[in-house]
Amino acid sequence: MDMSIAGLAELFFYSASMWWVIIPAVVVGILMGAIPGFAAHNTIIMLLPLTLAVDVNIALTFMVALYCASHLGGGIPAILLNIPGTGGAAATTLDGYPMSQQGKASKALALSFVASIMAGLITSGVTLFLLQYLSQVGFYIRSVEMVVVMLFGLALIAAIAAQDMLKGLIAGALGLMLGAMGADHIYATPRGTFGILELFDGVPLVPALIGLFAISEALIMLEKRTIAPEASARAMPTWGETLREILGAFKHWFMMLWSSLLGLIIGVMPGAGASIAAFVAYQQARTYSRTPEKFGTGHEQGVIAPEAANNGVTTGTLVPLLAIGVPGGSTAAVMMVVLQFHGVPFGPRLFVQDPILAYGVIMSMFVAYIFMLVTLFPLTRYLSRITVVANYYMAPMIVAFTLVGAFVPRNFMADLTIAVAFGIIGYIARKTGYNVAAILIGVILGPLLERSFLLSMRISGGDPMIFFSSTIGNILWALLAITLLASPSISLLRKMRRKGDIY
Amino acid sequence: MSDEAPSDRKQVGSDLIIPVLGIAYAIYYVYSVWEFPAEAQRSGFFLAGLLFLLCALFFLRTLLLALRGKAELEFLALLGPPEGRWRRLGFVALIGAYLLTVQTLGFTVSTFSFLFLGSMLGGLKSARRAATFAAIAALAGWLFFIVLLGTRFPLGPFEALMAQVMLLWT
Predict the structure, then answer these.
(1) Closest residue, chain B, to A418 (C-alpha)
(2) Which residues in A lie closer than 8 A to residue B119 (C-beta atoms)?
(3) Does B156 touch chain A (CB under 8 A)?
(4) How high is the pLDDT of residue A501?
(5) What interface predicted TM-score (ipTM) does this complex get?
(6) Concatenated DSSP letters for A438-490?
(7) Would you list the domain boundaries of chain A?
């Protein structure tokens, strides 16, 4: 079903009239997104009694606004404390945290917020017009294509750890090995679990994330008094400076546009998600940058690209849910449960029976991002102060409260121990130059890659040529090869140019 | 890469920990799938083989550095700067103690104790300030995580007492 401009305008005003639902959802979403472990789907699960009791439109608006805001919130601790609030914000730590360490926390926050909000507005706007076409993408992405998409993620492991590629690859391979822990996909027999029942489902992602990033960071924090040099971060930026920082972020408009669209497309593929999108966008930004060597040292584009992409994903993950009834991510899956409870159909039937609701989901998202614009100034100005709070307060608080986050998704006490074990691995990795983000990518991709790989091999009867049997797959292979070769080739050309070998 | 570099030689001892841990886990993983049908072994063998190959390359690189006299086996850099090293190790032990006691003491009491001792170990000099900070943060955490969000974190004597107070009040 196509939507007219007048219809969209009517829908916009209807969604805006839900401000009393959107504002509290945005506040809760930013707050919960900033606490590792309390991702949007956990929060929605905890608030199920509320969303199941109210009218479907209210429930939907609340969930969508909370979902978007949590992705914006996830970047806050990633920048200020080197702890991603959500998996999608893991790539933001690479340049966001170095900016905080240099006393540029408010600038990094401004970049992150502007990128997130603009990406949300761009992708929800685009989706409103292209929903009927975008919804077809999910049909073309099968296990074969998913394997290539995953390999993109693997290629990033080497690219991310550019200071020592071999260490980056070892970190990624270790992550993949850990990610393959748990029951196997064919016979459901546990592998590599040390006989621990809580690991039969595989490595729980939230405790792994909390350990690798939060606990290891807390241990390292105690070596210094504060995160940022006290003198450089002591003065709070004035309102004028805050405005200049926010406006300054707009000079990266093209990066925002490109990364958000990349996030939207990756989000439409079921199972891909914000973490992959953010790392793909980061790597793309670095590959095609004129100053790739600045990435990882506190480069502005290194904050813009992952934040724009992970917010682009929020819109994308809802597309397959609405169009074919396949949730694109965990939050979309929880939303699906709530909507099913309210008797909402999915797939083509939704667009026939209740098109207003289908388009209303995306419009609620658009309106929620507009409301988030209001939060830009106070958040940018005041949050950067966290970097000058003494670490003897911050480190114990991070450990105590993130361990609650590790417990929440499954309510297993063993998850606390798993988080601490990953914390120790993360600490050793950080101190010895193995990239913790690479380990995390491996843990995330491990089970997804294995599932798609085995499914493809089963379909083909064990013939590996199936991976080169589809047009889309082959295009993706070519893009992967270009991505792998582009970065070293460009570096080599630059080196030769510097030496004067070429002009 | 090591933090402390007293000589020109690269300190590689702690750099070997992750590959050694990785290989140890890969061996255990292969052992755990040894009896599986071939189809189910495929991905495990592939991943373990990949990790073995990369670690072997790393060991070879380290060995070549050592043979050229450019590397030394040193592990102390892993523990960070010498100043405050014992306090940081104490903090790690405190995390272990927290894991052991949280189920008995419950969220609020264990969080208070952890924050109080953790901030003192972290370098806070005043016990009064540490106690005030720990009390405020533990109570705020209880209100937010236990009362408002209703997380099912273990409850202890404080939560039981507050439940009784609430019961009397209502």
Answers:
(1) B99
(2) 392-393, 396
(3) no
(4) 57
(5) 0.92
(6) HHHHHHHHHHHHHHHHHHHHHHHTS-GGGGGSSHHHHHHHHHHHHHHHHHHHH
(7) 5-162+228-392, 462-503
